[in-house]
Design goal:
- The protein is of the alpha/beta class and 203 residues long.
- It folds into two domains: 36 residues, no CATH class; 155 residues, Ribonuclease H-like superfamily/Ribonuclease H (Nucleotidyltransferase, domain 5, 2-Layer Sandwich), CATH 3.30.420.10.
- Helices cover 47% and strands 21% of the residues.
- The chain has a five-stranded mixed sheet with strand order 5-4-3-6-7, sandwiched between helices. It has a two-stranded antiparallel ribbon with strand order 1-2.
- The two termini are 32 Å apart.
- The N terminus is likely disordered.
Length: 203
């Protein structure tokens, strides 16, 4: 009987909340009779999104506030010549991270996770590029969040198999920025948007 009572109590709580919303109530910390419900706080601030690669990393600084149009503050593709050695490329990626952090008041860093690759050497190179991004952010005391490509596309486009062109068009519709064929930048902005849409303040 006790289990039955608890189940009925949970249903009553959900019904009270549904009735409250139906009557025009707003989400947040609200009291319904004697029931208090606290919804997690959404992200509000500036995100540095990064799509890491050894010779073509995308960076995008996004300002986001729930209920407002996301604003792309700055974006760039760091194109590095083939003649540069790996340590030089990694140094350039680190410098670009430092520049963005110095120029903007970054709250969070969001980075795309490395997808599965069969070539071990390629995986090592991508891992090194990601390591520089994460290391610089960590040394500057910034929290870093990682998202799989599938999750990013689902959060931004609504389809996990969306093409780079579809991602760029969707990011353009959300931010008003036309990236053209600068897909590394639109991917970086998509990472930032995924974080803005997904993150909730921990209890």
């Amino acid at each position: 009987m006790q289990g039955c009572d608890e189940k009925m109590g949970r249903k009553s709580t959900r019904k009270l909340w549904a009735d409250y919303i139906a009557k025009g109530g707003t989400a947040g910390s609200q009291a319904i009779g004697q029931v208090s419900m606290q919804l997690p706080e959404q992200f509000s601030g500036v995100i540095l999104g990064v799509d890491p690669s050894l010779r073509g990393s995308g960076f995008a600084v996004l300002k986001y506030r729930a209920g407002k149009t996301p604003s792309l503050i700055e974006s760039v593709t760091l194109k590095l010549k083939p003649k540069l050695k790996q340590p030089e490329c990694l140094g350039a990626i680190g410098n670009q991270m430092e520049d963005f952090i110095d120029q903007h008041r970054i709250d969070h860093v969001a980075i795309e996770e490395t997808i599965y690759v069969q070539n071990f050497q390629t995986a090592q190179i991508l891992g090194a590029a990601r390591g520089v991004v994460i290391g610089v952010a960590a040394m500057r005391g910034l929290p870093v969040y990682e998202y799989a490509p599938l999750r990013i596309k689902q959060a931004v486009v609504g389809a996990g198999r969306a093409s780079k062109e579809q991602v760029a068009r969707t990011v353009q519709s959300l931010t008003g920025t036309d990236f053209g064929k600068r897909y590394d930048e639109s991917d970086a902005a998509a990472v930032a948007l995924c974080h803005a849409f997904s993150w909730r303040k921990p209890d």
